[in-house]
């Protein structure tokens, strides 16, 4: 899969849960999916998706896997020394 880095996935000073939430929101908006539909596909509530997108909760990896599956995407979380954590969703079939 190709990792398309069109823009940074982390804003300096941003907490990890905010980075994860922003990545989910951006991907959801890119796919035209509503919070309600994402909640249905990932077996969560719409309120849980909203809390996640606003950085109000720290998702577990199993939860992020369910969200990636709902998007039909691969979730890539990279820990880069000196640069923090970046989060990207890649379309299945792309190359890294």
From TrEMBL:
Region (Disordered) location: 1-21
Keywords for the protein's UniProt record, in alphabetical order: DNA-binding
Keyword Transferase among record annotations: no
InterPro entries, per database record: Cro/C1-type_HTH, Lambda_DNA-bd_dom_sf, TransReg_Diox_bact_type
GO molecular function ontology, one term from the record: DNA-binding transcription factor activity
Residues of the HTH cro/C1-type domain: 24-78
Keyword Transferase: no
UniProt xrefs under Pfam families: HTH_3 (PF01381)
Coiled-coil residue spans: none
Entry superkingdom: Bacteria
GO cellular component: cytosol
PANTHER family hit by this protein: HTH-TYPE TRANSCRIPTIONAL REGULATOR (PTHR46797), METHYLPHOSPHONATE SYNTHASE (PTHR46797:SF1)
Name of the featured protein: HTH cro/C1-type domain-containing protein
